[in-house]
Amino acid sequence: MKPVPSKKPFASFLSRPAATPVLSALVASFLTVAGALAQQAGKSPVKIFVLAGQSNMVGQGSVSPVTTPGTLESIVANDPGGERQFLVDGGGDWIVRDDVWISFGNKRGGLTKGYGSASTTMGPELGFGHLIGDLYEEQVLIIKAAWGGKSLGNDFLPPSSGSNPATAADKEPGHYYQRVLDAVSAATSNLATYFPDYDGNGYEIAGFFWHQGWNDRINETFSAAYETNMANFIRDMRGDLGAPDMPFVIATTGMDGSPTYREIELAQLAMANPATHPEFDGNVAVVDTRGGYEGMSFWRQPYQSPKEEGYHWNKNAETYLNIGLAGADAMSLLAPGRCPYRLRAVGAPGGGVTLSWQNGTETPTSVRILRDGIELVA
What we know:
Number of helices: 10
Distance between the termini: 53 Å
Radius of gyration: 20 Å
Low-confidence stretches: 1-38
Strand order of the largest sheet: 4-3-6-1-7-8-9
């Protein structure tokens, strides 16, 4: 069944409250133009983003039916603000992007719905890929390396925490750490075979997006070791992928609707705290799925969702879409040398206005402010 799309125009991906001092009109304008280019294949080198984790990165969001609250079809059909219409074309068919490829297990092609645990589900890759694809001129490839029921304390255990992933078998420490590397190697070694439109001009590992934690959250020993293991995972993965400065984004394990943060979430949040991990300052970001991100919320109640299944975000497609959008936004702000697209303006009448933005580790050499095309100051 096709979703019944609203006739509203394409709008900003990120939904922010009016009180947030963000130049949302500028963002919406940028994304409107970018969205119009969504079907144009990008140029090389291919920007590769690795999405890894356990079942929630695999993707459990229900696509249909349109009559069930919280499915992908439902949120597109019931979209008075038009914020979700980037997922469909004018006829209500799901858009398949040729400028964003995806490889997940034995399935690969242009980004669209159905790359979750089954053809009837989706995960964070959908929102992530749409936003990242619009922000980069280059071709984007998403490599998903995710498996249900896996822990960082054992399955994904990095070498610096004591594992030997290269020789580990299933259920042995580090086996799925190695499988992430294997998934990246398989895709990058077969780009021309997997994606016939690849022009042969190389690729770059541009970022890593991690959403995992339930199996560690329910294990006291793994929870206590999570901060150490996560820091080691980031360092080791950067080294093994040959990308020492690779931007790394974590979406926390905040499902359940409670205001109380678990030990594992605090460990995940610590990765972006320069006081505890100064080496990650400016190159690791954390999306707080319990507290929210830029006015965007994630938890949806069971009555708003396809199924009461808290550890899978109640299978709510909007939750998975928002996690992906937030992850892509956080990722883009870590990318060095990018032109800033999201500005904040803070000020009061008579007191002037202060503009601030994030732009990776680069410092701008010049700034021009224009009003209606007329330069005010430079």
